[in-house]
Structure formats: structure tokens, C-alpha cells
Amino acid sequence: LFSNITWSLDQAANVEDQRVISHWKHPTTGVFVTLLLFTLMKFWMTAVAVTLPVPSGCFMPVFVIGAAFGRLCGEAMALWYPDGISNGTQVVPGGYSVVGAAALSGSVTHTISTSVIVFELTGQISHILPVMIAVLISNVIAQS
Fold this sequence. Notes:
single chain, mainly alpha, 6 helices
């Protein structure tokens, strides 16, 4: 979910990227349907798993749901703006995935330290401003 290539535009430069894209594309459906179904099924399975009388955490499932929804938004932005938004910089769907994962995890746990965990997990400190803004806004919305 965090790869920096755009799955919907077939920008695979090597065999590894092509292998990642092949997991998310189906001959009859595109990346968007697959990501949407993945997000909905992960949400449903997380709700079932959390209600079972078995000790389990909910941080990683929520993190993955946020990453999938962020990736869905990033792929849509990459499809709508293939040449970039304003000055020709390419849209990076992996960045949207990082921001989505941090925002949803921050809103569920009601903590701002989720942004630090995201930086530690992904090693992408370049997205510090969007991640911090998204975590703060999602925290304010969740606590209101």
C-alpha cells in the first residue's frame, strides 16, 4: 500500500513493481474496485475480530484500513492529475496512503503520537507536514 508507483497508470519500471501491481489488478475490475472492496472487507473483518472474546489489538487493522483508503484517494488524484497538480510535481499515492493511515489511527486512538509511530514505521519523514496536519484535524474531529 505504501509503494510510490501509481497502480492505475501502469508506471511499473521493474519486475518487482509489476508484481505488486498484479496483486491489486484484476482483468475484469480495476485498482479502484479492488481497493474499495479491500477497505470494506478489512473494516468488516476488523469489526468481527474486535468483538470476539480473544485478546487482540485494533491499531494495525485500523492502520491498514486508513492506508487503503488513503491509497484509494491517492490513486484517484493520480488519475485526475497525471501531470501533477500545480507545478508539474507528480502525485505520489504512497504519500496519501501514509497520511490516511496516520489520520485514521490517530483519530481512533485519540493520540498525536501516532504521527511519530508512522514516521518510525515507514521511514518517510518527507511527509511530516501533511501527516501532522491530518492527525491533528482527525483528532479534533474525533474528540468533538
